[in-house]
Amino acid sequence: MALTANAVMSNQIDGQIFALIVVANVAMASLATPLVDFFYKPLDRLETSSSSNLTTMSLQSTPSIGELRILSCIQKEDDVHGIITLIESNATPMTIVCSYVVHLLELVGRATPVLASYTKSGGHGSTDRVMRAFTNYSKSTDQSITVQPFISIAPYKTMYENVCRLARAKHVALIIVPFRKAEVGEMNSDQFRHFNVQMQTYAMSTVGILVDRGLTCVNSAEFSCKIAVIFLGGADDREALALAIRMSDHPCVKMSVMRIKVGEYRHEDEVENQLDDQLVKEFELKNKTNDSAQCSEVKLKEGIEIFNWIRSLENGNYDLIIVGKRQGSILKLEGDMESWTENPELGTIGDMIGSEDFCGGTVSVLVMQHCVVGGGCSKKRSNSVPDSSKKYRISSFSTILKHYTSTLERN
Question: Which of 17, 94, 265, 403 has a 20 to 30 A CA-CA distance from 388?
């Protein structure tokens, strides 16, 4: 346009031609955005590339002795301590932890999205502080931990693409992303939650969403953590238990695995039942002489008993509770309570224990989701981010109990 204006001023073109050029530019600009949105399908491309390589990574498929690769996503500096604690919990004498740390920065303007290795000359203050914290931790710990820092600058809408590709290229078994609840004055919380949903949907690795309520590792010398695992069965819960098996090797981790059996329920797929039983047996055999790890079985009926039992966990003084996002068709309450779930990306149980009403909002929660073969998990899972502007029908744990009790009475 500047060249065109200069041409008008030098009488090389007249006013009518200039007007046509301006109209043509406006028309091209107005058509470009919808055309790009129509033809550019990053989700389809991710699904296609996933389908061409059906290799998925999970904690169950990763040998317990050797290298464990974890990709940690950091949005804010507040996310650092909780994720370092999770990394430390997995660092044992038998395991080498390779941690890929990705600092996620929102792209503003029309610059090109970037995913690159972090260098100190990058000049971004918050990134420098985040990476310095991980570097100092890796140097101070007695365990075998290496940190490889990355920085991702992209719009939140497509940020998951870079992370998914990096995880696939590095053969990462576990991706950890922080949970971001909508807060007053915070504009991008829903966008980041959408990022989490997209990670659950398209990542070729197990995805863990961390609801951090003050999970802090001061240093490896003073580290201690009391962890509980709720196990009902299914692929997601098995990933949670597989993580617990690794963590139980840490001398400063106290692990409690609680297997819930609902009535006389058995999964219609006998293979699923066998996989559940085998993994529980593996945990028991591995920790037969470990006083810091225990496994218990709880038999409950569906409905109010499960809610009351979950409420009783408040007396356990746990630092972290690990649970699978989905328990398959084990719990009828998943279908009954789905419309009451405020954060569907956490699952029914994860949403309940991750609420601020549970234990006064002092217990951190890690929600695990196992990847389905071939990616494109959206075809098998229902993930959505509710609008933060609407009034949720669920406000507290007691509200859930009241609603479910009234439902049982009507039935």
Answer: 403
How far apart (Å, rounded) are the C-alpha atoms in residues 120 and 146? 17
CA distance linking residue 163 with residue 159, whole number of Å: 7
Instruction: Quote the mean pLDDT of the chain.
Output: 81
Tokens 């840490």 belong to which residue? 250
The DSSP result for 114-163, as a single string, is EEEE--GGG--HHHHHHHHHHHHHHHH-SS-EEEEEEEEEE-TTTHHHHH
The CATH number given to 220-410 is 3.40.50.620
Rounded CA gap, 119 and 135, in Å?
12
Distance CA 74, CA 134 (A): 11
- Closest C-alpha to 239, from 323, 171, 164: 323
What is the tens place of the pLDDT at every residue in 28-74? 877 776 776 665 555 444 444 444 455 678 999 999 888 999 999 99
Q: How many CA atoms lie within 13 A of 351 on its CB side?
A: 20
How does pLDDT run across 243-299, given as a tens digit for each residue?
Answer: 999 999 999 999 999 998 877 666 667 888 899 999 999 999 999 999 999 999 998
Alpha carbons 387 and 138: distance in angstroms, whole number: 39
Query: Is the separation of the CB atoms in 373 and 56 below 8 Å?
Result: yes
Q: What dotted CATH number matches 55-206?
A: 3.40.50
DSSP single-letter state for residue 60: T
Structure tokens given for 347: 């699952």
pLDDT tens readout for residues 373-382: 544 444 444 5
Question: How far is residue 357's CA from residue 353's CA, in Å, rounded to a whole number?
Answer: 8
Closest CA to 207 of 310, 305, 71: 71
